[in-house]
Amino acid sequence: MISTFLRHELKAFWRSKNTGKSIAIRIVMALLILYLLLCVLAIGFFMNGVLEKAYPHEDEVIAFCGIILLYYLMDLFMRLQLQELPTLRVQPYLQLPVKRDALVRYLAFTALLSVFNIWPFILFVPFILKIIAPDSGAVVAFAFIVSLIGLTVFSNYLALYIKRKSNLNGWVFLIVTAVIILVVLCDFYWHIYSLRNISYLFFGRLITKPLLALAPVLLGAAMYYFNFLYLKQNLYLEELGSRKAAKYKSSTDYPLLSRFGSVGDLAGNEIKLVLRNKRSRSALVMGLFFMLYGLFFYPNPKFIHLESVKVFVGMFMTGIFIINYGQFMFSWQASHFDGLLVSSVSFRDFLKAKYLLFTVVSTGFFLLTIPYVYFGWRTLMIHFIMYLWNIGINTTLVLFFANRNFKRMDLSKGAAFNWEGMSGNQWILSFPLLIAPYVIYGPFALLGHADIGLALLAVTGLIFILIRGFWIKQLEADFYLHRYKIAEGFRNK
């Protein structure tokens, strides 16, 4: 059956009206992946030299055993961001005498065809054959390779399981990402434990006890079986639908949003869009990562006293979601934009929901920057000023440029190497967002009156917030001038 499913997928690909475009994209991606594979292969051949320079006081085999677990932790994180879920148009087969096990086995098999499953072997096998095999023998080298196979299978199916659960509940993805970040911080920042030592505890013993290689294989087999059962239980569309209905609540049940009526309902739907889809979710995840942006500047004595840097960092951290997510407004609704035009939804409420979404997320990001008070209360004050600037001015600028964005976006596609929806507007938009604060603050800072510049930034942002109703009316009128061009652009697939 697997060969039959593969033939059907190939026929569907060649019969698609976008076959030419898809082939061109796949060729470019194949060349890029081939280049990356060659780079990784080069690193694998010279890994002993790299390890000697990175860990000059350790034996290279000990250093090698210590980095394997670190690699697979990074591998899991990268899979969650970039690896695509294997798909099959299941609906036609559900009415045919095709066993569910065959469908699930096909999905499980195609999951192994990911390029992520090649990286560890290209990276680690050259070192195993060059160093471990001559010193410890072929049996030990084989044990290392078997353990890599087990860990790769485990990481592959664990990532797929998490992504499938995330499609039902977007918070799963955020929680798992937060756990991975916390695990890394506990090692490299707080030094509570050492992942390298934990890695060596297992892989170092493989040299004397090769049979331990069966442990990762059992983990991989268990994760495969667990993933197989989950797919089998959730194969039918009606079962998936009932589970989604049970998992997701109406946006009016959000305590924070329920008080805003229909605007809160629209904002709640937008939050669901962000959490459910890969590319929109990546905008939120990248925003969470940029909460660490200040650590690149504030501990550095060269930057700690430069308030112009703090203005930029504060604007970036509290407004990164507005910049990342807002630059593709209204492309996020491209697939159902025609429905919005003829629906009973007031576009004014639609704009208010965008303002509400940006305000809620930026408020959350500002609260996450509060620990930077460690670098002084003035630092936190600048963050608050830039938070007012973002929800007052940058939000308005983003929605203004949204009325001039005619590029469609497919939310089902991943964020990696995906330039769909990109246009010159994104480049034009970035300049006023990043430069506008310095137009006000810069002259006063150069004249030695930085406090006046900061005060003007705060007052300007606050004024825009207070007269938000006026700007919503202007944006609504501007939208009605461009709505048909936007709709026409979103129809072009």
What does this structure look like?
The chain has 493 residues and is mainly alpha-helical. The chain has 2 domains: 226 residues, no CATH class; 241 residues, no CATH class. Helix content is 73%, strand content 0%. The chain is built from 21 helices and no strands. α17 packs antiparallel against α18 and α17 crosses α21. About 4% of the residues have low confidence. Pfam families: DUF5687 (PF18940). InterPro entries: DUF5687.
Contiguous uncertain segments of 5+ residues? 237-252, 415-419
Helix content: over 70%
What portion of the residues fall into strands of 2 or more residues? under 5%
Termini gap: 32 Å
Written as H for each helix and E for each strand, in order along the chain, the element string is: HHHHHHHHHHHHHHHHHHHHH
Outline of the structure:
InterPro entries: DUF5687. The chain has 493 residues and is an all-alpha fold.
Give descriptors for this structure:
2 domains, about 500 residues, mainly alpha, DUF5687, about 0% strand
Q: How is the secondary structure organized here?
A:
Layout: H1 2-15, H2 19-45, H3 47-54, H4 60-82, H5 91-94, H6 100-111, H7 119-136, H8 138-168, H9 170-188, H10 195-203, H11 214-233, H12 237-247, H13 262-276, H14 278-289, H15 307-326, H16 337-342, H17 347-368, H18 377-402, H19 424-446, H20 450-466, H21 468-491
Helix pairs in contact: 2-7, 4-8, 4-10, 6-11, 7-8, 8-9, 8-11, 13-14, 13-17, 14-15, 15-17, 15-18, 15-19, 17-18, 17-21, 18-19, 18-20, 18-21, 19-20
InterPro entries: DUF5687 (IPR043742)
Pfam family, one: DUF5687
